Amino acid sequence: MADARLPYRADHVGSLLRPQALREARAQHAAGAISDNELHGIEDRAIQGAIDKQVEVGLKDVTDGEFRRAFWHFDFLQELAGVEAFESAQGIQFKGGIQTAAKGLRVVGKLGCADHPMIEHFKFVKSHTRATPKQTIPSPSVLHFRGGRKAVSTDVYPEMDAFYDDLGKAYAKAVKGFADAGCRYLQLDETNFTYLCDPDQRAMLVERGDDPDKLPQIYADMINTAIAGRPDDMTISMHLCRGNFQSSWIASGGYDPVADVLFNQVDVDAYFMEYDDERSGGFEPLRLVPKGKRVVLGVVTSKAGELESADAIKRRIDEAATFCDLDQLCLSPQCGFASTEEGNLLSEEQQWAKLRLCVEVAEQVWGGL
Fold first, then answer.
1. For the chain, does the N or the C end have fewer beta carbons within 10 angstroms?
2. DSSP annotation of 18
3. pLDDT digits (tens, 9 = 90+) for 251-281
């Protein structure tokens, strides 16, 4: 049985602001000034520091902060067999006129997964902490949503059903790899269920030939294929996000259009849900969360440095508890602090203060973590 304590009452999404020394080392490596081994050693030391700090602020689970990645999603997906990274015409567009580095992914061969390098990343964390090591990876839907049919070779996959099936099976191999390495807390970072709540994103999908009413079930089936063979004692959570890059965002809209499929058709154990501002809608969809699943309320923003008040957070928890039993609820920031290596617009001190606040409020509300 999955660990009933997970997610913890105070938890976190996973990514952390990169320390300056790590940022400089990655730039030096990109310029050819330091070797792979030198960068790896600097990453190791930075991750150990992040692990120690997570424990210091009171968290019961730790991640590597995604310190070995440039992007939360590309770095994982490009290591799947059949996936190719390329320099795109432009980056992903965020509100405020900013965009990520120009990079894209396309499927050029049959999908698969063998010995994914991030399994070694997990092993490092597990061997360097007594806390619960948590691994984050992008949801399989991410490989489809941004590029759609145009990003999938018609020679390799004439029909999209075969693509969805193979992608789920490739992920199942990755999940097994993490499980065999001792991972018992795995998180799927999922943006696309929430993008399907945004009218503009739905219109984009219709224009390119996708049916936004059918995608939630397609994605649910693919995710379920990916996690069906997990060990009984592995907890799998899903983080829901509307975009997170340099404190900007992409999508808006409450969870209502996808809530039933999300909560009742996706076989994960818990949901990290973005709820830090009005873009996420109300708590009403939580009425559909079945008993036995947990919801982590992301009411503390990772997009700005100002520290929320404990009383305001408690009021939000009380509001959510009118739709979902308090015992099913937990607390975290609404997203990671650095979905890409650029990071959000706040300081490391502000980041740690927010995580410490989550721990303090959780202890007051639930009497422990």
1. N
2. P
3. 999 999 999 999 999 999 999 999 999 999 9
